[in-house]
């Protein structure tokens, strides 16, 4: 069993992990940059170590500093949160080489799923339905055009190393292929140092449905249903809910079992998310995230489980504390991502929080590292909080979200809160009728 774990992250997710550790009687070590000396995760952890200057590459991404912080404090395991080093296979290898435990999957699983071509190949072989497209990388424009003909336009050119919505370009017809192919490649080269791209059928009106899976690393795995994350801006999620308003119990059981069986067969360890596009009753795999997701709390709410506690348990070699049969959905949950951004451009707005009041009451969870007088530094992600509500059904979750947003006070910086007030007025949102393009269109028409 661990006495102490180090949290290689910051912000709300660092608090999330520190809280789980504390409930398990495990000590926590925060690491921070010089810009984060006053950050909440530093205050809340049992110990903290400054690991470098503000720039992420010299602090939260600095592998030697993080390993050194473990050695100095005697932490036996590292929880990576999401982002930063959470999907860096090289980091996991180094952690293991230092006889420390990485709270997450193996380096090999991260490597396979981190490359979208090998991920898709692996999933196809495990019986997971995939988007029709190229078999692997597409090296030349001539081949891309040939594939466009075969698959049928529109198609999407995607970077195998892609992430965060970058390195993706749609070609509606052969005339657009050259531009899409060249831009996806050059964007990918610039962002990820790898210009390999592949081609998929572009689905025109899908929903983004993702399945939460969890494995014990020894061949057992379960699924915890789906989250609908279709409300996206520039391929970034802003509003997530579970269960998905368009998914039936039969569909959930079937795709859930396919996913749980797939990860069981590869002896996957810990939390993972298998992302799909869902159109006309069919699921199409797009990628797997080998970490805890930002939106994991909606799943925790409806299943009544603590996913971080479970991650720590399996990292300690303990069995999972639930079986598939134990997992029953109770009610409906919604999360909204609150960013320090100014609408309508969504321009980042770091600055000082003059007043912060978190909503509360039945079925309300606010995961945030804000406090009165806190200055949001300009160096990191603009996510400053997640408001999660849980209700008996979708309707009561929406009502509760409206109530909780009304209680929330964040003074001093602009936030995305007004967006959610407006969305709650929309009949399509109230009915749960939206796809991955709905929000972009709405923003164009309304902001
Ligand atoms: P990233 O890793 O950059 O997040 P994903 O492969 O997860 O990229 O795709 C992100 C989003 O891009 C999806 O949620 C969806 O909105 C859109 N997308 C990706 N592939 C397709 C496709 N084949 N057809 C339509 N939209 C797609």
TrEMBL record:
Q: In which pathway does it act?
A: Lipid metabolism; malonyl-CoA biosynthesis; malonyl-CoA from acetyl-CoA: step 1/1
SUPFAM superfamilies per the UniProt record, alphabetical? Glutathione synthetase ATP-binding domain-like (SSF56059), PreATP-grasp domain (SSF52440), Rudiment single hybrid motif (SSF51246)
Q: Does the keyword ATP-binding apply?
A: yes
Q: Which UniProt keywords apply?
A: ATP-binding, Biotin, Fatty acid biosynthesis, Fatty acid metabolism, Ligase, Lipid biosynthesis, Lipid metabolism, Magnesium, Metal-binding, Nucleotide-binding
Looking up InterPro entries in the UniProt record yields: ACC_Biotin_Carboxylase (IPR051602), Acetyl_CoA_COase_biotin_COase (IPR004549), ATP-grasp (IPR011761), BC-like_N (IPR005481), Biotin_carboxylation_dom (IPR011764), Biotin_COase_C (IPR005482), CPAse_ATP-bd (IPR005479), PreATP-grasp_dom_sf (IPR016185)
EC number(s): the record gives: 6.3.4.14
- The signal peptide, as residue positions, is none
Pfam families noted in UniProt = Biotin_carb_C (PF02785), Biotin_carb_N (PF00289), CPSase_L_D2 (PF02786)
Biological process, per Gene Ontology: fatty acid biosynthetic process; malonyl-CoA biosynthetic process
Q: Which residues form the Biotin carboxylation domain?
A: 1-444
According to the entry, every stretch annotated as the ATP-grasp domain falls at: 120-316
Q: Which GO terms describe its molecular function?
A: ATP binding; biotin carboxylase activity; metal ion binding
| Catalyses which reaction(s) | N(6)-biotinyl-L-lysyl-[protein] + hydrogencarbonate + ATP = N(6)-carboxybiotinyl-L-lysyl-[protein] + ADP + phosphate + H(+)
Q: How does it assemble?
A: Acetyl-CoA carboxylase is a heterohexamer of biotin carboxyl carrier protein, biotin carboxylase and the two subunits of carboxyl transferase in a 2:2 complex.
Task: State the function annotated in the UniProt record.
Answer: This protein is a component of the acetyl coenzyme A carboxylase complex; first, biotin carboxylase catalyzes the carboxylation of the carrier protein and then the transcarboxylase transfers the carboxyl group to form malonyl-CoA.
**Name listed for the protein in its UniProt record:** Biotin carboxylase
Which organism does this record belong to?
Roseovarius aestuarii
Q: Which gene encodes it?
A: accC_1
